[in-house]
Structure formats: structure tokens, C-alpha cells
Amino acid sequence: MKETIIIDCDPGQDDAINLLLALSSPGELDVLGITTVAGNVPLDLTERNARMMCDIAGRTDVPVFAGCAKPLLRELITAENVHGKTGVDGVEVFTPTGRPQDRHAVDFIIDALRSADDASITLVPTGPLTNIAAAIQKDPSILAGIRRIVLMGGAMREGGNTSPSAEFNILVDPHAAEIVFDCGRPITAMGLDVTHQVLSSRERIARIKAVGNRAAEATAGMLEFFSRHDSTKYGADGAPLHDPCTIAFLLQPELFEGKLCNIAIETRSPLTLGHTAVDFWGVSGRSANATWIYRVNADGFYELLTERLARLK
Ligand code: BDR
Ligand code: CA
């Protein structure tokens, strides 16, 4: 049976590629809507970039909703240094044919979950968790409609990528992350420990480029741009392709290994703000609230991505 999902994102090249992966998989995934949030770049750009990806995928039937322009309590941090001015540098920007939706993303999420059967909609957040937390705060009854949350965020063994302790999505809105991790619905977390295993090496990008369609060329272009910054930062052949771990997990969970444990979010310390305290060995006595993914079959992941992109025209 198809899994009904809402993707909440801040494209961002890796969010954008995640959208293409989802939109090329209609056999398994029913994408009810795409909601966007401020993160990698400001909200007007994340919303436009999401609609661009719907065009590239030939899926303008999927509605895109703009959400929160800033985190719940903190000022917005963006990441143009990684993603470029547009957020999707590497692909030529164009005016999408799909129209923006009038409804706020938070209201769309609330309406969708309110009218859904219990445990029937999967949320796939790949940016700061502001929209999801705002929806839960506004109407906690929506929790019943959530089947599971498969998100990109956090870091344990790998350390932080935006501060020594924190990963970008959680650091941008730690208060939202705390609300989501404490929400009581099943969570699968793709942190840097796993995403740093799926490197966009030159060989993998070349294989994607060779597919030759619009989506594959856009993906290769974005990866080439995205890889420049991270290859230097991490001294590796390629960049971690963070966000597509979420949709890849929905499509082929057997590619991943994880452990159910407690994950708590640091919201007070100026030094370690946004840290994900992953209780991997169960030493805290706190009950498990999430599955922490720590290993992936990286070749299998890139095979899946390449094969799905080839399905698009
Ligand atoms: C996360 O931060 C963003 O820059 C990426 O899009 C990804 O969601 C990785 O830390
Ligand atoms: Ca993202």
C-alpha cells in the first residue's frame, strides 16, 4: 500500500534532490503536499525552489505551501555559504509554472492531519522543524493523524556541522526540535552519523549525469555545486547527501540500520545549543522516542537515486 506523505523542507540542493526522489516514486509514495520553511535560504526562495522541482519532475499536480519565515524563538540562520545565493545553485533558476498556494503551510498540515484517519500520514521534515512544531502547538490533536515522522537532523558520533555540537536543522530551531522529539509519535532520525556516509563522489555524479534527462542533469548540476564546499570542509570526494536519506528510507528501509533510543534536544546552553543528546547505550533512564539511524548501504542508496531519476522524462 502507498504511504501518504507531506514533505516539509528548505531547498537547498539536498532537499531539492529529495523532492525529485519522492516525486519520481508515485508507485510507493502519495505526496499530499510540500511545505516549505525558512532555513538554508529565506522562505520566498525555499518555496520557489520547491515549485521548481515540481516542474522539473513534471509533477505540478503536487501543491506547495509556504510556512514559517523564522524559527519559533530565535533569529533565522541561513546557509548560503553552502547552498549558494539561490539555495539551489548548480541549476538554472526559472519561474515555475505551478502557482504558490494561498494557505499557510502550518494550516495545510493541520487540515490534512485533522481530516486523516488515525496514524495515516507520514511527515518528512528535511529542514528546521518550525512548521511541524507550530502545527503541533496550534492543534495538538493532529498528533493522532501522524503515522510516523522520518526527518533529517541531529548528530552524535560525527559532531556538529554548524557548531561543534549541533547540526544545522536542529541548531536553527532547537525549540521546535524539542517539541517534535517530545511529541510521542514514532520518529526516525537521519543525522550526520548516517548522512556523512552517502558522499556524492565524482563517479556517482557522473553516473547520474549519464542518465541524461532534465531531472538527472539538474541533480548532477546541483551536486557539483554542493560538493565543492563540503569536499573542502571534510576533505572527502563529494558531499554528504543529507536529506534524500529520508525518502530513500521510506522506499528501501533495508538500506539502513538504526537503534531505538532516547534523543533529547539542548535548548539552553549557549555552548551546545541544538545538540542532539542521543542516548545510544540507554544510560539516561529516559524512554525511547526515536530510532537513530547510524549506517547505510551507500552504493545501494545511489543506485536507488539514479534509477528513480531515470524514471522521469
Ligand atoms: C541539513 O542542513 C541543510 O543545510 C541541509 O539541507 C540538510 O537538511 C544538514 O545539516
Ligand atoms: Ca534541508
Give a written overview of the molecule.
The protein is an alpha/beta fold and 313 residues long. It has one domain: Alpha-Beta Complex (Inosine-uridine Nucleoside N-ribohydrolase, Chain A), CATH 3.90.245.10. It contains 12 helices and 9 strands. Strand 2, helix 2 and strand 3 form a beta-alpha-beta unit. Helix 5 crosses helix 7. The two termini are 25 Å apart. The site of beta-D-ribofuranose (BDR) has 15 residues, from helix 1 and helix 6.
Number of structurally distinct domains = 1
Quaternary form: single chain
Helicity range:
25-40%
Strand tally, please? 9
**Top-tier CATH class:** Alpha Beta
Rg to the nearest angstrom? Answer: 18 Å
Taken as a percent bin, the fraction of beta residues is: 15-25%
Average pLDDT number: 97
Order of helices and strands: EHEHEHHEHEHHEHHHHEEEH
**Class from helix and strand fractions:** alpha/beta
Distance between the termini: 25 Å
Indicate the low-confidence ranges by residue numbers: none
Q: Tell me, what's the shape? A: globular
Main sheet: which strands, in order across? 3-2-1-4-5-6-9-7-8
Small molecules bound in the structure, each named once: beta-D-ribofuranose, calcium ion
Number of contiguous helices: 12
At the fourth level of CATH, the homologous superfamily is Ribonucleoside hydrolase-like
Largest sheet: 9 strands, mixed
CATH fold category name: Inosine-uridine Nucleoside N-ribohydrolase, Chain A
Report the CATH architecture.
Alpha-Beta Complex
